[in-house]
Amino acid sequence: MLSALVMTIMFIAYKLFMSNEKNLRFNRCVFLSIYVVSLLMPLAWLMPAGQRVGDGAATTMTSDNISTALTPIVDASDFIPSHSVIEILLWLYITGAIAVLAHTVMVTVRILHIVRSGECIDNGQCRVILIDDERIAPFSWINCIVMPRSDYHGCGDVILKHEMMHICSYHWVDLYVAQMFVVFQWYNPAAWMMHREIRILHEFEADDAVVASGVSAYEYQMLLVKKAVGARFPSLADSLNHSQLKKRVNMMSKKRSSRWSAMRSFAFVPAVALAALLYSTPAVASFIESTSQSVLSLPPDDKDKEKKAVYNEEEVFTAAEAMPQYPGGELELLNFVSKNVKYPEKAAKEGTQGQVVAQFVVTSKGKVVTPKIVRSVSPEIDAEAIRVLSLLPDFKPGTVGGKPVAVWYTIPIRFRLSGDKASQSKEKE
C-alpha cells in the first residue's frame, strides 16, 4: 500500500516537472528510480512497532499524571474478523494479480510464437526475424527485431537503427520491471500509466538516436505515419508504431534541454516526504497495518497442512465454517478489552506506544487458552495484552461440519498515549 502511494505521488511529480524535458537518458534514470524508491521505502516500516514514524512515541511523563493522562485506545477497526471486508478485498486483489499475470504470460507466449515462426537472420548484434504477416508492425523484444519482409527490403535500415536502440539500451528490462509492478499493483492507476509512460520514453530515445544517425527527420516522421497501423504488443515489446505519434514528432523537434532543467528532479524530495506524511497519518496507518496483518484463511480441507497444530490432542483450525463468537459480538469484545487494559507504567514513562497483535485458541468448549504475541511492541505492553486476554470469558466455539472445533483467533490492540499532557509533549517534539 505504501509502495503504491509513493509511486503515485512521484509519478505525478514526474509528469508535472520532467516529462516534457528533452533529457531523455536522465529522465529514464529518474523514472526508474521511482520504481526503486517505491519498492524500498516500505522496508522502513518493517522496523519493530513503536520505532516507526506512524507510531509517534511520546516524551517521558511523570508518575503523578499517568493515571489521568493515559488511556489505551482500541478501535473497532483494529480487530480482524474472520470473514471481513478486508478478507474479501484480499481475495479480490489476488484474483486481479493472477489475471494480469496470466495476460502477461499469454503475451510472452504469443511473441515467442512469432519469433520462432519467422525466418531468422543473425547480423552479429541481434537476431532479425522476418515474418510474412504484414499486419504486425516492426517491434523489438530482448535481442530480437521482428518485421515483415516488405519492411525489411523497403526501409529496413531505418527500422533496424530504431529497434537496435531499444535492444542496446535494454529497454525490454524496463518493460518487464514495469509489468511486474502492474501485476502486483493492478489496482493502482499510476502503475498502468507508468508502464505506458516508460514505453513513450523508450520511443523518444529511439527516435532521437535515428535522427542523430543522419536520417532526415522529415523522412523518418513520414515513415512513422505510414507505419501507424498494424498490431502491436502493448505490454512487453517496443513497437515502431507505438501510439502517441504526435508527442514523438514534437519531441524530435525540440532542442535538448539545458543541464539546469535536471534540477527539476529535486521535486521528488517533497513528493516522497508527502507520501511519508500521508502514510504516517494515524487513520491511514491503521488501515494499512490492519490490511497487511490480515491473513487469508482458506476454507477447511481435511488435507490442509495448516491444521496440524494441536491443543491437548485437539486439532486447532486456522479457519472454520463458523468462527468463534464473543458473547454479544465483536463490539462487546472491544469494550471488554478497552475497559480492562491498563497502560503499563514503564511503557508510559518511556513514551512507548503501538499496535500489538495477539493470538489465542478458542477450544471446542469455548475456552480461551494459550494466548501469545505474534507482533510485539514492548515486553511491558505485550505482557499487558496477554493479561487482558487471559481474562476473557468463554466464547461460542467455532464449528466445522456442524461440530465444535478449536480455532485460532487473532486480535490487534493499539496502545496509544492520549490526553492533554501527551499532546503537549508531542508538540514539543
Give a description of the structure.
The chain is an alpha+beta fold and 429 residues long. 49% of the residues lie in helices and 14% in strands. The protein folds into 2 domains: 2-51 and 85-271, no CATH class; 297-428, TonB (TolA/TonB C-terminal domain), CATH 3.30.2420.10. The chain has helices spanning 2-17, 24-40, 66-69, 85-117, 149-168, 171-184, 189-212, 217-226, 245-253, 268-280, 282-293, 330-340, 345-349, 379-390, 420-428, and strands spanning 119-122, 127-131, 139-141, 144-148, 238-239, 310-311, 314-317, 354-362, 368-375, 398-400, 403-415. It is elongated, with a radius of gyration of 29 Å. The two termini are 28 Å apart. Mean pLDDT is 75; it is low at 46-72, 75-83, 292-310 and 420-429.
Q: In angstroms, what separates the terminal alpha carbons? A: 28 Å
Overall body shape: elongated
Query: What share of residues is helical?
Result: 40-55%
Mean pLDDT: 75
* Helical/strand content category: alpha+beta
Please compute the radius of gyration using only Cα atoms: 29 Å
Query: Total helix count?
Result: 15
- What is the count of structural domains? 2
Model regions low in confidence, pLDDT < 50 over at least 5 residues: 46-72, 75-83, 292-310, 420-429
What characterizes the major β-sheet?
Answer: 6 strands, mixed
Give the SSE string: HHHHEEEEHHHHEHHHEEHHEEHEEH
Total E-strand runs: 11
Strand content is 5-15%
